[in-house]
Design goal:
This protein is an alpha/beta fold. Helices cover about 40% and strands about 15% of the residues. Helix 5 packs antiparallel against helix 6. The protein is globular.
């Protein structure tokens, strides 16, 4: 689905109000005209309208795709104006193959917008997260605790008020998490389940670029994940003496 939302965010508001339910969407992309630090490192603020965009994407079972390039998608012809990241791509959440896109500024020709492309075989090598035991992780936890302590929990005697408090807390965690996200490279050390078999199959795929080797690689990845997490579950069960 291709989207254009003007500076008044008319399309975003329309999609949210209409509550469409498209579960067969693979890609939603276009010019959303939203400035946000989540996808543009040069922009330091968080836009509230982006929360509505994520609500819409979640309702379509789509997740934000992060470009491999991290460069602007719209280039200004005025030297006094900044280049922007306002063209975005959302991909099907349950797909392990559709996970990122590439920006080609050299293909825009006379247009001030770049082209966004995606290939089924691309392997994601970067992600945004808060690293365990990092300074950002400590600050994130402290801010969430402080904000949670300020929540008004004086009247949660009924389900409606309790749900409101829970939603408010979820918003606090979400906004604070986004605030301290960092872009990191994914290596074999980032995944505890990664082993030599995964590595060799990945090398084979990169050498041949064939669909067959790609399927072999992803089959190995899925099997290694399953074995690793089944083992972890068994360790927890044995340690806790219960499910």
């Amino acid at each position: 689905m291709n989207i254009y939302s003007d500076l008044s965010h008319s399309m975003i508001k329309y999609l949210k109000d209409m509550e469409f339910n498209f579960w067969n969407l693979l890609i939603m992309t276009g010019d959303f005209n939203i400035y946000n630090s989540l996808w543009d490192p040069s922009y330091i603020h968080h836009s509230f309208i982006s929360d509505n965009l994520f609500v819409i994407a979640n309702s379509f079972n789509l997740s934000l795709s992060y470009s491999t390039d991290h460069i602007p998608t719209r280039y200004s012809d005025n030297a006094n104006n900044s280049n922007l990241v306002i063209n975005l791509m959302f991909l099907h959440s349950d797909s392990s193959e559709l996970n990122t896109h590439i920006i080609y500024p050299e293909w825009c020709l006379t247009s001030d917008y770049t082209l966004l492309t995606i290939t089924k075989e691309y392997i994601n090598t970067r992600k945004r997260t808060i690293t365990k035991n990092s300074k950002e992780n400590d600050i994130f936890i402290k801010e969430v605790i402080v904000s949670f302590a300020k929540l008004d929990t004086s009247s949660i005697s009924n389900i409606s008020n309790l749900e409101k408090v829970i939603l408010d807390f979820a918003d606090i965690v979400h906004c604070t998490w986004i605030k301290y996200l960092k872009l990191i490279n994914i290596t074999r050390h980032s995944k505890s389940w990664w082993n030599d078999k995964c590595n060799s199959d990945l090398v084979s795929y990169r050498s041949s670029k064939s669909i067959k080797s790609w399927k072999t690689f992803w089959k190995t990845v899925k099997n290694m994940k399953r074995e690793f997490f089944n083992l972890k579950i068994q360790e927890i069960v044995s340690k806790k003496r219960g499910p």
